[in-house]
Specification:
It is built from 13 helices and 12 strands. By secondary structure, the protein is an alpha/beta fold. Helix 5 (96-108) packs across helix 9. Bound molecules: pyridoxal-5'-phosphate (PLP).
């Protein structure tokens, strides 16, 4: 018996790999500031639980494979509130943004087809693309430029005869890079010229800072036939465990293809859809409050990071991540040191090594990704622990 070549090419999540080391440190009584995964500490809005508690039916039955009418209607109202006009038929409810991504790639890719992504990218893209028979291809980006990649020549240079789609994540994970509406327009023009799909992962859409307005490919009205949006309640509403996501497109072939997969898995959680509909109807003030909270954290993290000698980091413009170049040769070795040897007042810190987010892991060997998912004071301490850890690590290396 054997497993598939596809499965062999996939990697394990770079984020979860160090969990056992962290658990062992906790057993030794060490407190760990976990800034490695995008699990926010913000309270899920109460309307979610209320909608579930008030669910009127006695049987938790299967729902329509494409999602409940009420949730799809709430999603359209929400998109309409910022000018993106979609009908319930353009919306499919999925088990998290993850399932939406997986359905999209299975629907549009043939064996060997390429999907362009800015490198570094959300590593699960690679898993979903590989399982759909495709492969990821890179648009380079650099720490010194804040990982911005939306330059026409850079994108066009990456297109090959095998390219079928470009996936944009704005605001970005793992980098915090943000596309403007004009840049989204430019990417659509390139996609039209080369007949590509545009997949827009907008799970962090509202988390943009410094007074910027959230942009959306849903506003690119002339190109809607080639645009596929994936979205989720996980980050926007701090509801990662709700597992409700969305696939949104005006393209009927995509929606019909995705529906075959949706019918195959029957239905998405009935109660969580009821909760999600309430979330999409929250007042606009919710978004400004959450954005202000993350912006405060971003500022603290950035100002603490710039105190570390040798760090390369441009202030991120959105999401709640920052990828940072550190003065180390092997980021995983440094993380292992933090989790197994270092502590300051019985505390240490856990970040995600950035090598797992890179097409070629060597490029991420000296970079970490921080998620600012803890309150500002805890974030300040987390970055301080990185600075103290680096000092101790350098001393240890000098002694070897
Ligand atoms: C860029 C991006 N897209 C999609 C997802 C998937 O989220 P979920 O499946 O929880 O909706 C994540 C999760 O971290 C993400 O960072």
């Amino acid at each position: 018996m054997q497993i598939s070549e596809k499965s062999k090419r996939m990697g394990l999540s770079p984020i979860r790999r160090f969990n056992e080391m962290a658990r062992n440190a906790e057993k030794r009584g060490i407190r760990i500031y976990r800034v490695n995964i995008g699990q926010p500490d913000i309270e899920t809005p109460k309307c979610y639980m209320e909608a579930i508690r008030n669910y009127p039916n006695d049987v938790i039955a299967y729902m329509e494979s494409g999602g409940t009418d009420d949730l799809k209607k709430a999603v359209c109202e929400f998109y309409g509130s910022f000018g993106a006009e979609f009908e319930p038929d353009d919306v499919m409810v999925t088990s998290g943004g993850s399932e939406a991504l997986s359905m999209v790639f299975t629907t549009i890719l043939n064996e060997g087809d390429e999907v362009l992504a800015a490198d570094p990218y959300y590593s699960n893209y690679s898993t979903f693309i590989l399982s759909a028979g495709g492969q990821i291809a890179r648009i380079p980006s650099h720490a010194e430029e804040g990982y911005h990649y939306a330059y026409r020549d850079r994108i066009e240079k990456a297109i090959t005869p095998k390219t079928r789609a470009i996936i944009c994540t704005s605001p970005g994970n793992p980098t915090g890079d943000v596309l403007t509406q004009d840049e989204m327009h430019m990417i659509c023009e390139i996609a039209e010229e080369h007949d590509l799909w545009v997949i827009s992962d907008e799970v962090y859409r509202e988390f943009v800072y410094d007074g910027a307005e959230p942009a959306s490919f849903g506003l690119e009205k002339e190109f809607l036939d080639r645009i596929i949006i994936t979205d989720s309640i996980s980050k926007r509403y701090s509801c990662c465990g709700g597992r409700i996501g969305l696939l949104i497109s005006k393209n009927r072939d995509v929606m019909n293809g995705a529906m075959k997969l949706a019918q195959g898995r029957l239905s998405v959680s009935t109660l969580d859809q009821a909760g999600a509909a309430a979330l999409f109807r929250l007042p606009k003030s919710y978004y400004s409050e959450i954005r202000a909270e993350y912006e405060k954290r971003r500022d603290v993290v950035y100002s603490e990071l710039t105190k570390i000698p040798g760090v390369v980091c441009v202030k991120p413009k959105g999401s709640f991540y920052v990828t940072v170049k550190l003065p180390v040769n092997d980021i995983e070795d440094f993380l292992v040191f933090l989790l197994t040897e270092f502590s300051d007042n019985n505390e240490t810190v856990m970040f995600a090594p950035a090598d797992g987010f890179y097409y070629d892991s060597e490029r991420g060997k000296n970079k970490m990704r921080l998620a600012y998912v803890l309150r500002s004071e805890q974030m300040r301490r987390a970055v301080e622990l990185i600075r103290l850890g680096l000092e101790a690590y350098e001393k240890k290396q000098a002694g070897n």
